[in-house]
UniProtKB/TrEMBL annotation:
The keyword Transmembrane does not apply. Gene3D superfamilies: 3.40.190.290, Winged helix-like DNA-binding domain superfamily/Winged helix DNA-binding domain (1.10.10.10). InterPro entries: LysR_HTH_N, LysR_subst-bd, WH-like_DNA-bd_sf, WH_DNA-bd_sf. One of its GO terms (molecular function) is DNA binding. This is LysR family transcriptional regulator. Pfam families: HTH_1, LysR_substrate. GO terms for cellular component: protein-DNA complex. Residues 1-58 form the HTH lysR-type domain.
Length: 296
């Protein structure tokens, strides 16, 4: 089996249908079917179960998929590394960011584009676990995330560039704070408000920090909604449904009416944030330069 056949196999495994895989590969269906038959004959195994409407991987096919994906990614990475020896900075830069860190990207990308206009971008948003999987699959090269990073691989798998800590702020409906003219609130005042919290099924670190801070100030927050979307939570705040606590940088991307953002005066409550990438993994020139933008 050669590189070309591995790409054919992975396309079929992804699309679960010969017709769609052939279209994706810009080739006719009969030659692709012949290639699949040839691969199975060479290996002496059946790679796909053809009994249903879709092609599903057999155990042998699943093993090959895992190994082939890793091999193809490493091959493509090696080709990229060799080509970059004599090339300028261009190509596609894959970036991941957790939902609460998306606001940290626009200004950096704007600065980066001024120096490297030939670079284009693919940006993924997700929780720590999804982004860790995308890193491992080489769909992205770096992640901007809240720390500590909660993915299964563990902190030791990543290189981390810490960024300046981000203070938490209270985000409340505009009409809820009676102290007109003040730009601050005390933590204990949040005890009276229905509370909205940012949380996914698996990434819970920031949620737990906020809950702990409330408890340290003597109250249990009245959590009426857990949500994985910053936009949805802010829409609920604007509608007067509840209040929340977010890192201050999150709010720089939103100008929703009906929301008031207040400093929390009686606590030094900070969110740690950083740029992460896999250790011992080749980083493209564009990824290295983009990380440098964060380090400045």
């Amino acid at each position: 089996m050669d590189i070309r056949q591995m790409r054919y196999f992975l396309a079929i495994a992804s699309e679960q249908q010969i017709t769609r895989a052939a279209k994706r590969l810009n080739m006719e269906q009969p030659p692709l079917s012949r290639q699949l038959k040839q691969m199975e004959e060479q290996l002496g195994v059946t790679l796909f179960d053809r009994s249903g409407k879709r092609l599903t991987l057999t155990p042998a096919g699943e093993l090959l998929r895992q190994k082939a994906e890793r091999f193809i990614h490493e091959f493509d990475e090696t080709m990229k590394e060799v080509q970059e020896l004599d090339e300028g900075i261009k190509g596609v830069l894959g970036i991941g960011a957790v939902v609460s860190c998306i606001s940290l990207l626009p200004s950096r990308i704007e600065r980066f584009r001024k120096s490297y206009p030939e670079v284009t971008y693919k940006i993924w948003e997700g929780d720590h676990f999804l982004l860790a999987d995308l890193l491992e699959r080489r769909n992205i090269e770096l992640v901007v995330a809240r720390l500590p990073y909660e993915a299964d691989a563990g902190q030791e798998s990543y290189s981390v560039l810490p960024l300046p800590s981000d203070p938490f702020v209270a985000v409340i409906p505009a009409g809820w704070h009676s102290n007109a003219g003040t730009e601050a609130i005390q933590m204990k005042e949040l005890a009276d408000f229905p509370f909205l919290t940012l949380k996914t099924d698996r990434t819970v670190g920031m949620h737990e920090r906020v809950i702990k801070e409330c408890r340290d100030h003597g109250f249990e927050p009245q959590v009426i909604c857990e949500c994985s979307s910053v936009t949805i939570i802010l829409s609920l705040v604007a509608a007067g449904i509840g209040a929340t606590v977010f890192p201050k940088s999150v709010m720089s991307s939103f100008t929703l009416l009906g929301i008031k953002v207040l400093a929390i005066s009686d606590t030094d409550f900070q969110s740690d944030v950083g740029v992460l990438w896999l250790k011992d993994r080749y980083l493209s020139k564009s990824a290295r330069r983009f990380i440098d933008i964060f380090a400045e």
